[in-house]
Design brief:
By secondary structure, the chain is of the alpha/beta class. The chain has helices at residues 44-52, 84-100, 115-125, 154-162, 177-186, 196-202, 238-249, 272-288; strands at 24-29, 58-59, 64-65, 71-76, 104-109, 130-134, 167-172, 189-192, 210-216, 254-261. It has a single domain (24-288), classed as 3-Layer(aba) Sandwich (Arginase, Chain A). The protein has eight helices and ten strands. This is Agmatinase.
Length: 290
């Protein structure tokens, strides 16, 4: 798939007309082949784009206008329906090519398994890679009912790839007992229930490091984001996630890429989930793309 051609569908608000003049590239990964509860996250990327039409182009959080960041919306990847292995290979190759052209990749999911091939491509380019993981779920399973390619496994795979001491999870409030025990024994960092406060404490230790940020929309309480496949009560507010994005933007870490996953719009007729997601994407672009 070529990502340097104009996308004929809906694009995120104020996307640049050409790939060449962009610093960041938004791309969609419409995949929900391995979800364990409710499918539908493959429709997330396009609905986030649609919701962006209602955004203001100025962010009072970052005190920046979207015209100040050059980004290109490359549209959704044409992933092979129902084939997780081939889809993973396609995503890996796609992100690898983006990195070769010095672009900041900002992916829209899709289920959380889509982050796994991104981790692989990022680690090849940035051997000092750290991962900030914001989520309701630990995602530390080795497999789900015998399937190793599952949306419940990407953070375990990340730990095995870059070392658990380089993985930092926030907002976690759901998982198997074995997952929480693995986090405790392995040396990875896991903050339960909260995001902003523990993140503020950790960020100084990551100064100067290359950091990839993966965010699952279900870190939000279902009151703020009902449109997701595996909603978990007891989550954070939209305000706290915005605060976390701002904390990262104002830190001394080097954010090298990011994704926002698990938006499943069909479960939210009010569209508050996609509206919130589009705002988070705006803040990531303005705060994290240097």
């Amino acid at each position: 798939m070529r990502f340097d051609e104009a996308y004929s569908g809906k694009v995120f608000i104020m996307s640049r007309p050409t790939f060449e003049e962009s610093k960041a590239v938004i791309y969609g990964m419409p995949m929900d082949w391995t979800v364990s509860f409710r499918p539908g996250s493959r429709f997330g990327p396009n609905r986030i784009r649609e919701a962006s039409i209602g955004l203001e182009e100025y962010s009072p959080y970052m005190d920046k206008h979207m015209e100040e960041v050059a980004y290109f919306d490359a549209g959704d990847m044409p992933l092979p329906f129902g084939n997780p292995q081939r889809s993973i290979e396609e995503i890996y190759s796609y992100v690898k090519r983006l990195l070769e052209q010095e672009k900041f990749p900002l992916g829209l999911g899709g289920e959380h398994l889509v982050s796994w091939p991104i981790f692989q491509a990022m680690y090849e380019k940035y051997p000092d890679l750290k991962i900030i993981h914001i989520d309701a779920h630990a995602d530390l399973r080795e497999e789900y009912e015998g399937e190793k390619l599952s949306h419940s496994t990407p953070i375990r795979k990340a730990c095995e790839l870059i070392g658990p001491e380089n993985v930092y999870s926030f907002g976690i409030r759901s998982g198997m007992r074995e997952e929480f025990q693995y986090a405790k024994d392995s040396g990875m960092y896991m903050a339960r229930y909260e995001v902003a406060k523990p993140l503020a404490e950790v960020l100084p230790s990551l100064a100067g490091q290359s950091v990839y940020v993966t965010t699952d929309i279900d870190v939000l309480d279902p009151a703020f984001a009902p449109g997701t496949g595996t909603a978990e009560a007891g989550g954070i507010s939209s305000k706290e996630l915005l605060e976390a994005i701002q904390l990262i933007a104002n830190s001394d870490i080097n954010v090298v890429g990011a994704d926002l996953v698990e938006v499943a719009p069909n479960y939210d007729p009010t569209e508050q989930t996609t509206i919130a997601a589009s705002k988070f994407v705006r803040e990531m672009l303005l705060g994290w793309v240097k």
